[in-house]
């Protein structure tokens, strides 16, 4: 059997849930939530680790 590599998660499941609920409750866009929670990479690109609505 092949060994599976464990990937380090940047965001915890609890944090993702908090952000998604905030997006829904406050009708935020994905980019607004990314700015609010500082989810931009140092390169300026969006770290796309949250599920889409």
Automatic annotation (TrEMBL):
GO molecular function: sequence-specific DNA binding
Top-rank lineage group of the source organism: Bacteria
InterPro entries, alphabetized: Trp_repressor/repl_initiator, WH-like_DNA-bd_sf
Entry-linked SUPFAM superfamilies: TrpR-like
Protein name (Swiss-Prot/TrEMBL): Transposase
Organism whose genome encodes this protein: Acholeplasma hippikon
């Amino acid at each position: 059997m092949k060994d599976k590599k464990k990937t380090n998660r940047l965001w915890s499941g609890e944090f993702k849930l908090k952000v998604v609920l905030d997006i829904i409750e406050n009708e935020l866009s994905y980019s607004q939530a990314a700015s609010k929670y500082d989810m931009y990479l140092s390169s300026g690109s969006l770290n796309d680790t949250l599920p889409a609505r």
